[in-house]
Amino acid sequence: MSPDLLLDPQLKYWVLLPISFVMVLVGILRANVTQLMSGGPKLTPFKKFREQSFLGRVGAFRANNSVLTEQEFQQRQEYFIATLNTDHFYSEPISEDDKPANPFTDPSTNDAMMNMMKGNLMNYIPQTLIMGWINYFFAGFVIMKLPFPLTDSFKQMLQNGVATPDLNVRYVSSISWYFVNLLGLRPIYTILLQDSSAVDALMQQQSQTQQVPTIGGPGGPKVDKVYKAEAENLQVVDHKSIFDGIVERVLEAN
Amino acid sequence: MTLLKTKLLKIAKSGVFQDFTPQQLSETREEILSLGTDGLTTVEVYTLLELQFYISLLTNHDVEAKACLDRLVDQFDTEKSQRIKLLQSLYLEAVAGDEKKATDILCRDPDEMNLSRRLTSFSRKRANGSESFINNLIFYLDLNPSDLKSWGELGSQYSKVGNYEKSVYCYKEILLREPFAYNIFYLVGLEYYHWFLQADLNNNNKDKKDKVLEAVELLSQARNHFLRSIEISESYKKGWEGVYAVSNVKEFNDRIGGKWGQVKEVKKFLADGDKLRELSKSKIESI
């Protein structure tokens, strides 16, 4: 058992609290700036929407055609197959050449990349600054002693930046305190921001698991192929009406 | 407090307040006013404000509606939000009575589907109301083929002008999306029943066999749909009443029973009708 270190009580007021305080403030600031910088959700262009919407209608028909009678089923099946084979609902004319479009000239892709870059910047700049600040002023500080015992495996987590292999694990270094704050401030943000979705976004940014934006890569199926495939699916749909024998079912159940 | 909040948020989300009775509306309004904003998140506060706006419009509290609208407009960008534009246009139509301005707000961006739908509904008021409304709805549904609200609206419009076949088609479109919507099954049954009455009324040659079979077919379709609605929800009283009504068309039953009673379809129909009449009668009495 190593003897106790004597920690200057002033460390608490001039190192421990300021680091926590700055971390909280920067977190809130960042949440607000991120919100300002991210534009609102974009609407899908109505032609594209129409294309999808019709496909949705066909899908619903394929899944739930049991609510139709035989005659209605036939009528709709014919209509859908005929319509799927025309270009009535295509959002844009289909070009004949098979060359896939360059995804980087697509404005929606650019938007997604821009958003990702903004998010990354908002993440890295403040983190670099705070870490630089701590390393500059408080490098190698041991700033507090935890009031409870811990096993030795916590050493790496709590004593980052102090090169003392035999120091009791209960002592925490300044840079480790920074990391603990970085990952553990969620309850404080939840109280201060009162908006759980913003907190989620903030914590997700901090844990550095960035979502990869969906970039419409080449080779996405063209709409005419999708429609043709759907029409072929419809040819083989099996129909069984719920109205067959419904009288007997009800009479039996009651 | 939390329960009240959850209830109000549910009302706001489901839009069920549109079918409220005046008394329910005024009760809901009192509840919103009594709730206050303590302990609500920002999103919840503005959702409730939107609800308050709708309800004050419905209960003729114009000043209050204006206050809600102003608070929402202050908070959100009116150029970017469809929802706010919708509210503004509603207010202009309902209180200021300025239809031109109300439609202008809706016309700005063709991508805003919700606004296009509302734009469609304006033609209802024109001189040849139903017809142009139906045309507009068809146009809108061509743009957005999976909009259930509009299919429902188109169905009820067709029903109004007596085109029951098309009306059934529209309601079926809803059922394809929501196969357990028992109230829609009831509506379809009702349309078939009306269709049957219409066909029977216009039928000059009541003794032809194919006409009789057609009528029997319509009536059994109506019966099947009513039965499906009670199969999904057993305590749905309207559904049972429908079953009772279609199995109790006395004059028609006597007529076909007399002459066509031995035809296979008619025979089965009449036999089923007798059983269902008893069953539905006892069910209605017990519910």
TrEMBL record, chain A:
It is a multi-pass membrane protein. GO terms for biological process: protein folding in endoplasmic reticulum. It is found in: Membrane. The chain crosses the membrane at residues 13-33, 124-144. SMART domains: DUF106. One of its GO terms (cellular component) is EMC complex. Its main location: membrane. Keywords: Membrane, Transmembrane, Transmembrane helix. InterPro entries: EMC3 (IPR008568), EMC3/TMCO1 (IPR002809). Belongs to the EMC3 family. The EMC seems to be required for efficient folding of proteins in the endoplasmic reticulum (ER). This is ER membrane protein complex subunit 3. It comes from [Candida] railenensis. The lineage of its organism: Eukaryota, Fungi, Dikarya, Ascomycota, Saccharomycotina.
TrEMBL record, chain B:
Part of the endoplasmic reticulum membrane protein complex (EMC) that enables the energy-independent insertion into endoplasmic reticulum membranes of newly synthesized membrane proteins. Keywords: Endoplasmic reticulum, Membrane, TPR repeat. Its main location: endoplasmic reticulum. SUPFAM superfamilies: TPR-like. One of its GO terms (cellular component) is EMC complex. It comes from the Eukaryota. It comes from [Candida] railenensis. Component of the ER membrane protein complex (EMC). It is found in: Endoplasmic reticulum membrane. TPR repeats lie at residues 148-181. InterPro entries: EMC2-like, TPR-like_helical_dom_sf, TPR_rpt. Belongs to the EMC2 family. This is ER membrane protein complex subunit 2. It is a peripheral membrane protein.
